[in-house]
Write a structure and sequence with these properties.
Layout (H helix, E strand, L loop, with lengths): L13 E5 L2 H4 L12 H5 L18 H15 L3 E5 L2 H4 L9 H16 L3 E7 L5 H7 L6 H17 L5 E6 L1 H9 L12 H24 L5 E7 L3 E3 L4 H24 L4 H10 L9 H11 L3 E4 L4 E3 L26 E2 L3 E2 L17 H15 L3 E5 L17 H19 L4 E7 L18 E3 L11 E3 L1 H11 L4
Parallel strand pairs: 1-2, 1-12, 2-3, 3-4, 4-5, 5-7, 6-8, 7-11, 11-12
Antiparallel strand pairs: 9-10, 13-14
Helix pairs in contact: 3-5, 7-9, 8-9, 9-12, 10-12, 13-14
Keywords: Glycosidase, Hydrolase
Family: Belongs to the glycosyl hydrolase 1 family.
Protein name: Glycoside hydrolase family 1 protein
Length: about 475
């Protein structure tokens, strides 16, 4: 559009940062917590960078007061964190673990003490291992009732203090890496039919949790967070434009349409039925999905990169190329679906050391598309840069590259707001350094440097990076 006079961010805009329980807490068996699928998975040789685990992580379990005090010093308006299901129900269901209830009550109270709005993610990938052992976890429809029971427990204990709820974090990622590429639990490869069935179970769990929240009198905001990778056609050739459309139906709208409309994209469903891998739906599922869609409050977006689409011939690349988990630039491979689309590199964009394209305007694109397609408010629940940060002998961390990355993304977000997008919050990933799932601790995202490496140990001392002071000023000036 023609250059418009920027409106700035709303006065009540929530400047925040985010984390996930498994990636920061540690204390993996402390306080009565049960084992999770990730506690089990990381013990399989070769699954993570240098065999790193979240057993200790960055010890937030014992240092949460210190970390939240740093958030307060920065001036955060909101802190998005997840609750570990296995801390509340060590066996996934059954008896409640009161120590776990108290731990998260303390985190919520500590945030509120400083005027920080707690934003709770109900599920961020760490599933109680007991449910996997009992019936296969997300592979069984039984997971739906157990998840809803868990969510209702959180609503009952914390609903009077928590106004923002995220049901699922990146459902598209934990299911694709778990059942298609074997990189996440349960480590299954190319099980496409189960992949779509697992997603349907997750959709139903999300929907029933949303409806339960409303039925229990919840008046806060609730929705899911989707890992959104917007796409651009490689060029104006019709086959590449159609490749983009097919990519969006299969990789973006398959999730967002269910969250916002309560239905699957028709073309994608027709394709999956032809392939014999469409999910099986029970009587009443469609109506419940639609009811939940009418009851959500926002579309959560985790944005890191965009992609390019071109037609992929039948003998072209597959979805199973190598992912860069080492930080060796250029080691990632192209992926796609034969006969549908391919995702080549974008020659106009720079990339991170992990081969993720850096595209601030993609964030604006995301917001515009959600606004036009769904007319929903937006919460940017994750956005950040993973990098090799170095601490000097003076305990300083000069991460000007992170400042530049975030500055450009906030600029693009402000343009989206100017163009009519209703954005409620912007949460960076992450506040402190943390375990980056498959990438270990070398891939640092935080404003706060944590003194630890791949092997457990290190002082765990916290050091403020240059970006800490920069974001502090951003918050003080409401994004100006």
């Amino acid at each position: 559009m023609e250059e418009m006079k920027k409106t700035g961010f709303p006065e009540n805009f929530l400047w925040g940062s985010a984390s996930a329980a498994y990636q920061i807490e540690g204390g993996y068996l402390d306080g009565g917590k049960g084992m999770t699928n990730w506690d089990t998975f990381v013990r399989i040789p070769g699954k993570t960078y240098k065999e790193t685990t979240g057993d200790v992580a960055v010890d937030h379990y014992h240092r949460y007061k210190e970390d939240i005090a740093l958030m307060a010093e920065m001036g955060l308006k909101t802190y998005r964190f997840s609750i570990a299901w296995a801390r509340i129900y060590p066996q996934g269901t059954g008896d409640i673990n009161e120590e776990g209830i108290t731990f998260y009550q303390n985190i919520i109270d500590e945030c509120l003490k400083y005027g920080i709005e707690p934003m709770v993610t109900i599920y961020h990938w760490d599933l109680p291992q007991a449910l996997v052992d009992a019936y296969g976890g997300w592979e069984s429809p039984q997971i739906i009732s157990d998840y809803v029971n868990y969510a209702k427990t959180l609503f009952r204990y914390y609903g009077n203090k928590v106004k923002y709820w995220i049901t699922m974090n990146e459902q598209n990622i934990f299911t694709s890496l778990g059942w298609l590429t074997a990189q996440h639990p349960p480590g299954k490869f190319d099980d496409q039919k189960m992949f779509y069935q697992v997603n349907h179970h997750a959709f139903m769990a999300h929907a029933k949790a949303v409806l339960a929240y409303r039925e229990m009198g919840g008046t806060g905001l609730i929705g899911a967070s989707f890992a959104y990778t917007p796409s651009y056609a490689l060029d104006c050739r019709p086959e590449n434009a159609m490749a983009k459309y097919n990519y969006d139906d299969l990789k973006n709208f398959w999730w967002m349409d269910v969250y916002a409309y309560g239905r699957y994209p028709k073309a994608a469903m027709a394709y999956l039925k032809e392939k014999g891998i469409a999910p099986v739906m029970q009587d009443g599922d469609q109506e419940l999905l639609k009811q939940a869609a009418a009851a959500i409050s926002f579309m959560g977006v985790n944005y890191y990169q965009s992609c390019v689409c071109e037609y992929n011939p039948m003998d072209g690349v597959t979805p199973y190329g190598t992912m860069n988990t080492t930080g060796v630039k250029g080691s990632a491979q192209e992926i796609g679906i034969p006969g549908i689309y391919n995702n080549p590199a974008n020659p106009y964009l720079k990339t991170t050391d992990w081969d993720w394209s850096i595209d601030p305007d993609g964030l604006r694109y995301c917001c515009r598309e959600i606004t036009s397609r769904y007319a929903l408010p937006i919460i940017i629940s994750e956005n950040g840069l993973g990098a090799f940060d170095q601490k000097t002998e003076e305990n300083e961390i000069h991460d000007d590259y992170r400042i530049h990355y975030l500055k450009e993304h906030i600029r693009a977000l402000e343009e989206a707001v100017t163009e009519g997008c209703e954005v409620l919050a912007y949460c960076t990933w992450s506040f402190t350094d943390l375990l980056s799932w498959l990438n270990g601790y070398q891939k640092r995202y935080g404003f706060v440097y944590v003194d630890r490496e791949e092997a457990d140990g290190g002082s765990m001392n916290r050091y403020k990076k240059d970006s800490f002071y920069w974001y502090q000023k951003v918050i003080q000036n409401n994004g100006l």
